[in-house]
Design goal:
The chain is of the alpha+beta class. The chain is built from 12 helices and 6 strands. The protein has 2 domains: about 170 residues, no CATH class; about 50 residues, no CATH class. The strands form 2 sheets. Strands 3-4-5-6 form a 4-stranded antiparallel beta sheet. The chain has a two-stranded parallel ribbon with strand order 1-2.
């Protein structure tokens, strides 16, 4: 189990917290190898920027982004976006593919070591990396592609996500703390594992989430679904009933009442 508090996550690099999360979910996560690869890539980046002496800070960042996306070949996984490998840092480092939050965590890690002022932004549609330079307006990188995105593009993304009346607000672009980002990461990983029907690992995601928010009825509902897939029907019924009791007006509550009735009359497997 992951024995880390919110303060622990905030004290760590985001990528380090993600590795701890990955290991807690899948014991096969190669933390030592990943740390070695991070150190190797960092040394290469430091040497590259040292050789490019005389560049301004924005030019140094552009040189690093070229190294990261072009020479190292990191990219967003357009062919299998929801593959759980995209949320495990060791797999991202190995495959050079990821999703915005995992690629963004790598950018933040290298950026902090190389002296750039980068921040993680939990934008509603995806994770962003904010770039700050003195006396300049903030800029935003889409970690999936390495390209800068304008406010116009962010507004369009927001409308596509929340509807035509949505307006881009300052709150959408606030820096997110590491526990918040890790929570989003955990939800993404759980969703990917459920798609892949890897229910034992998905259950670990839910158990971890419930250590942070023990009474979350939606997380308990999801746990019930996982237990149902694992043929632990009695536990699934208990979780479904908890959700029905605490969220009676949710449309899912009526569906789950039917599910509870069906499970109650089916064979119960004791685990």
């Amino acid at each position: 189990m992951l024995n880390l508090s919110d303060d622990d996550f905030d004290a760590m690099e985001l990528v380090e917290g993600a590795l701890a999360l990955n290991k807690a979910i899948n014991s096969d996560t190669r933390v030592e190898w990943a740390n070695g690869e991070l150190a190797r890539l960092l040394a290469e980046a430091q040497q590259r920027l040292k050789d490019a002496d005389g560049l301004t800070d924005p030019q140094r960042l552009e040189a690093f982004l070229h190294l990261f996306y072009v020479e190292w070949g990191f990219e967003g996984d357009r062919d299998a976006y929801f593959d759980s490998n995209n949320a495990f840092i060791d797999k991202v480092l190995e495959r050079r593919k990821g999703v915005p939050v995992s690629l963004g965590a790598l950018l933040l890690y290298f950026g902090s070591k190389l002296g750039f002022t980068l921040k993680g932004i939990n934008f509603p549609t995806q994770f962003l990396v904010q770039v700050d330079w003195p006396d300049e307006a903030a800029k935003y990188i889409n970690p999936f592609s390495g390209e800068y995105v304008s406010h116009h593009t962010l507004q369009a993304w927001l409308i596509g996500h929340k509807g035509p009346l949505s307006k881009l607000k300052a709150e959408h672009l606030q820096e997110a703390d590491h526990p918040t980002i890790i929570g989003r990461w955990l939800a993404l990983l759980k969703s990917a594992l459920l798609r892949e029907e890897r229910y034992t690992l998905a259950l670990r995601c839910t158990d971890l989430a419930l250590t942070f928010v023990p009474d979350d009825p939606y997380e308990i509902r999801d746990r019930g679904f996982i237990y149902q897939q694992l043929d632990c029907h009695q536990v699934a019924i208990s979780d479904y009933q908890y959700f029905i009791e605490h969220c009676p007006d949710d449309p899912a509550a009526e569906l789950l009442k039917t599910q509870v009735s069906a499970l109650s009359h089916s064979h119960v497997t004791v685990h």
